[in-house]
Design brief:
- It is a single chain.
- This protein is an alpha+beta fold.
- It folds into four domains: 74 residues, no CATH class; 126 residues, Roll (PH-domain like), CATH 2.30.29.30; 156 residues, Up-down Bundle (Methane Monooxygenase Hydroxylase, Chain G, domain 1); 155 residues, Tetracycline Repressor, domain 2 (Orthogonal Bundle), CATH 1.10.357.
- Helix 4 packs across helix 5, helix 14 runs parallel beside helix 16 and helix 19 packs antiparallel against helix 20.
- It contains 22 helices and twelve strands.
- It is flat, with a radius of gyration of 48 Å.
- The longest helix is centred in the N-terminal third of the chain and has 54 residues.
- The C terminus is likely disordered.
- Component of the exocyst complex involved in the docking of exocytic vesicles with fusion sites on the plasma membrane.
- It is found in: Cell projection, Growth cone; Cytoplasm, Perinuclear region.
């Protein structure tokens, strides 16, 4: 078997092995199906052995595989570093070559201009004219004498706020102005661009934007109160733009200064020195300007550093830089240079404010709770915008509460949903109040805004609460438990000095009143229905367990019931009176859970109406019943109502409300049993 397997293995491993020919020969040489099955078994055995050997080799060389993978990873890292070094060296060599070429070019240009000044000037103007012919709407630019082209190139303009590309542009830098032209999508002949804007060199400042993806190879042009950001092809072109812009602006300023000096008339007469102490020297403003030192490195780089901080979302660093500048300029005179610097800084403050406002907008993620807004709020307060910070903070929390309530699933029992709703809302309100107290500790004027907001938030909560509890027609017991839960959670706010109990009650009073009146009508209808079927018979509860359960129910209501129970399972009261007692006591307990001071008379009058239905029924039965035994039984039920049930209702109401129930007391006195016939008959008057 082993020798056959070796021969088969050599055959399969040979380079000239042809599977189709091998199968054809094997079919011709085999005697039948059995030979093919045996050969198949041999090939399968060989395949299993090969797989086993391969697995053993993998396990044997497992550590070597790992070490090889590590070496490959190290080699990849070294190759990446080497590639980075070569790229940097190439960039350095290109910059050196460009610098040498530009130096030679400048020297050659100066020599040419010195040797042929008129020809050089004409060449510059012709070059500018030929370029401006490609710009639609730029014919009048060449009307200014002496204007010539200094530099030009393609740019891409980006949005200042969200750093997204806006349009392709082409810039023409001339010796006294900068022309921005946009690309035309539909070109007409030689015209490629369309006139966009023309800026005097004195009217704008150029700021380098540090490379921080996606802000790469960009510079900013500041024209108070606006700014524009442009991106160039690479870092070399960006450097050329910045250097040539700066050099051209300086050259223009120097030329203007010389012109002004030449225009000042010189008099041969020496001016006499004035002895007037009130004369003001014209050179004093210049001295005043020089008295403010703005040449410090951190001041020169301040606008650029602010841009970087805003881009990197380092809000604290940006505000620290602003505080440092304000502290430095606090006692300094407001010279022209200081005003220019403040104009640049104010633009950054506006951008920083917009970013912070966006951080607090409800469109942002609301996860993290109120603490997630602390960073943006604190920086807005430091910028002197506490009112805006307060407004945005509360709007953010409103959106968070709305989202939390909307995402709460309505499933299971209503009471379970209300527990979850109260837990989410009041916990969020408590956290918001604590965070507000932390963030606005030094701004007491904002506290009134928080109180107004808390009422609006409570309105939002009550809307969701009433929709689930009252609009869905839940039972009075369920509604009472839900209101009780809301009251208990509302008490938690008193820990921080915020009492919203009155707000909660005033918002719920309408729905609670409607629920009480609706349930009162249900009880009255049920009582009248039972009264219409009244037979004035004793109750038979059939089992001792049922009697024990009834005794426990009456005891829990505070009603003494022992003297009305007879032998076995009999009760010496009618079914109608017992059912009425249980239903009315349940209504009283649920009404006390729902009680608000505004609902005092509603609950009192509801109890009075319910009691009157039962009393009038007993009185009518006493007057109409002819059977002496039944009349005596009716009188027993009347006594139970008057002497047992009504005092308990009166006492329990006064305990729950804390006020005397005069209407209930008067009703009990007016329904006392009196004897109509001294021999046997009594009635209720």
């Amino acid at each position: 078997m082993s020798e056959t397997g070796n021969r088969l293995r050599k055959l399969l491993e040979s380079p000239n092995f042809d599977p189709q020919n091998y199968v054809k020969q094997l079919s011709q040489q085999s005697d039948g199906d059995r030979d093919l099955q045996e050969h198949r078994q041999k090939i399968q055995t060989l395949a299993d052995e090969t797989a086993q050997n391969l697995k053993k080799n993998v396990y044997k060389n497992y550590r070597q595989f790992i070490e090889t993978a590590k070496e490959i990873s190290f080699l990849e890292s070294e190759m990446y570093q080497l590639s980075h070094i070569l790229t940097e060296q190439k960039s350095i060599m290109e910059s050196i070559t460009q610098a040498l070429l530009s130096t030679d070019k400048d020297e050659t240009s100066k020599e040419m201009q010195a040797a042929f000044p008129k020809e050089t000037e004409d060449l510059k103007q012709r070059t500018l004219t030929s370029l401006l012919e490609k710009v639609e709407g730029a014919k009048n630019i060449m009307d200014t004498p002496g204007r010539h082209l200094v530099y030009n190139g393609d740019l891409v303009e980006f949005d200042v706020d969200n750093m997204s590309p806006i349009q392709k542009a082409h810039a023409f830098l001339m010796n006294d102005c900068l022309l921005i032209a946009t690309w035309l999508p539909n070109r007409r002949g030689t015209v490629k661009y369309k006139y966009n804007a023309l800026y005097d060199l004195e009217s704008f400042a150029v700021v380098n934007v540090k490379d921080n993806p996606p802000m790469k190879d960009m510079f900013k042009i500041l024209m108070f109160p606006d700014s524009r950001i442009f991106q160039v092809e690479n870092s070399k072109v960006k450097k050329e733009w910045l250097e040539i812009l700066d050099e051209t602006k300086k050259k223009k300023a120097s030329q203007d200064k010389h012109k002004k000096e030449e225009e000042v008339p010189t008099s041969p007469v020496r001016a006499e020195a004035s002895n007037n102490p009130f004369d003001v020297d014209d050179d004093e403003p210049a001295d005043a300007e020089e008295s403010v030192d703005l040449s410090l490195e951190w001041i020169q780089e301040l606008p650029e550093d602010l841009d970087v901080c805003i881009a990197q979302r380092d809000f604290e660093g940006a505000v620290d830089l602003l505080d440092k500048l304000n502290e430095y300029l606090k006692d300094q005179p407001a010279t022209q240079t200081v005003k220019e610097l403040k104009a640049k800084v104010d633009e950054r403050v506006r951008q920083l404010t917009e970013v912070l406002v966006f951080e607090l907008s409800p469109d942002r993620s609301l996860r993290g709770g109120p603490k997630a807004t602390r960073r943006a709020v604190s920086q807005l307060i430091r910028l002197g915008q506490s009112t805006k910070a307060c407004e945005l903070f509360l709007k953010n929390r409103t959106a968070a509460v709305q989202t939390a309530i909307r995402q709460l699933r309505i499933e299971g029992a209503t009471l379970l949903y209300i527990h979850k709703l109260c837990n989410i809302f009041f916990t969020s309100l408590l956290e918001t109040a604590k965070e507000f107290e932390t963030d606005f500790a030094g701004n007491t004027g904002c506290y009134s805004a928080f109180v107004v907001w808390s009422r609006s938030a409570m309105t939002m909560f009550v809307d969701a609460f009433s929709k689930q509890v009252f609009d869905s027609k839940e039972s009075l017991s369920t509604a009472a438990e839900c209101v009780k839960v809301a009251k208990e959670h509302c008490q938690q706010l008193t820990e921080i000095g915020l009492d919203q109990t009155f707000t909660l009650q005033s918002l719920l009073v309408k729905d609670v009143k409607a629920a009480l009146l609706s349930y009162k009508d249900i009880i009255i209808e049920a009582t009248k229905h039972r009264n219409s079927e009244e037979m004035w018979r004793r109750m038979n509860l059939m089992t001792p367990e049922a009697l024990t359960k009834l005794k426990d129910e009456m005891r829990s209501c505070g009603i003494s019931f022992q003297q009305y129970t007879g032998d076995d399972c009999w009760v010496n009261l009618s079914y109608t009176i017992v059912a009425f007692t249980k239903q009315m006591m349940s209504f009283l307990e649920e009404g006390l859970k729902l009680y608000f001071p505004e609902l005092h008379m509603v609950l009192l009058e509801s109890l009075r109406e319910i009691i009157l239905v039962a009393v009038q029924h007993v009185d009518y039965s006493l007057r109409c019943e002819q059977d002496p035994e039944k009349k005596a039984f009716v009188l027993l039920n009347a006594t139970f109502l008057h002497d047992t049930v009504l005092p308990v209702v009166e006492r329990r109401f006064e305990e729950g409300v804390g006020k005397p129930a005069k209407q209930l007391r008067d009703l009990r006195k007016s329904t006392r049993p009196v004897r109509i016939n001294p021999e046997s008959t009594t009635s209720l008057v």
